[in-house]
Amino acid sequence: MKWLVLLAFVFSLNMFAGDISGTWKGTADTPNGPVERTFVFKVDGTKLTGESNSEMFGKSTIEEGKIDGDNVSFTLTVSVQGTEGKILYKGKVDGDEIKFTVEIPAFDQKLEYTAKRVK
Predict the structure, then answer these.
(1) Is residue 9 classed as helix, strand or coil in its secondary structure?
(2) 117 alpha carbon, distance to own chain's centre
(3) For 87-111, how does the pLDDT look when each residue is reduced to its tens digit (9 = 90+)?
(4) What is the pTM of this model?
């Protein structure tokens, strides 16, 4: 019985820590200037879905999204001048802020990106 209570407690902490449902906004500094992006996250257990929008790349669907405690990861497919490419996001949630490392394999580029919860 003690183990069951302990497991339930640990599971509830992980679920609470990973609850990023809602709207987030952030900016990344790129070689072409700042890029603003809005995220609308939906969390179901450890699965992350939703969409993202930016003036530069338009609307994208969140794919391969996962929540593991305070860690979050997902991909976006964006179109640049008619060519589609994946952008990989890995982040750490800290309250109402997520610090992302963003990898753009097609350009062999990594960016730091911070998003904040919209209240």
Answers:
(1) helix
(2) 12
(3) 999 999 999 999 999 998 888 889 8
(4) 0.80
pLDDT digits (tens, 9 = 90+) for 30-41: 777 888 999 999
Superfamily per CATH, domain 2-117: Quinohemoprotein amine dehydrogenase alpha subunit, domain 2 (2.40.128.120)
Structure tokens at 23: 């709207």
pLDDT of residue 60: 95
Residue 98: closest CA among 44, 35, 34, 18: 18
Tokens 């610090």 belong to 99
Residue pair 71/78 in contact by the 8 Å Cβ criterion: no
Residue type (1 letter), 4 = L
- The pair of structure tokens assigned to 86 is 């994946």
Q: Return the HEC string of 28-90.
A: EEECCEEEEEEEEEEEECCEEEEEEEECCCEEEECEEEEEECCEEEEEEEEEECCEEEEEEEE
